[in-house]
Amino acid sequence: MKSSRLFILTILLTSLFSITTVQASTIYTWEDEKGVVHFSDQPRPGADTINLNIPEPSNSKANSADKSQTTNPQPEQTKEPALPIATISLISPLHEQTVRNNEGIIDVSVVSNRKLTKGHNARLLLDGKPYGRPQTKLNWQLHNIDRGSHTLQAQLLKHGKVIASSDMITVYLHRASILNRQPPAITPK
Description:
Elements: H1 2-18, E1 26-31, E2 37-40, E3 48-51, H2 60-71, E4 88-92, E5 97-100, E6 106-112, E7 120-126, E8 129-130, E9 139-142, E10 148-158, E11 161-165, E12 169-174
Parallel strand pairs: 5-12
Antiparallel strand pairs: 1-2, 1-3, 4-6, 6-9, 7-8, 7-10, 10-11, 10-12
């Protein structure tokens, strides 16, 4: 019962604070024979008193804002919302993924939170060196890559300057070896 009483009191106080025209300073509360808690602004025998200090509503801020707008009209500032920090991430292949391709092809996909518009490009680094030219697409197909371990990293460029870099990942390319090929089986005629 105490928790319901506290809950009802909280609701009542919240509603009183949200209504600025109500200026009651004393609230009376009591519990009836069924255990229901009541609140009123009228005194009743056996009721507990709750004193509230609600300040008078003031319009001084609103009035001063109105006065400042009429005396000093300022042009509206058209600020563009700040863009989030640029990010770029490799999504394919995954870190330490093994790619099996006898032609040495690795497909690379990247995602960025920026559109690659005028002045923005993406660049791929293979083993720390740029692979091809910067481009406006976020996909690459690497050709004739030697077998073994390679590092990949993507960079987001704005007018040639790096504004974001992905984490560097390692991929392992497996290609069939000519040295280990078995001669074709001879079939008797």
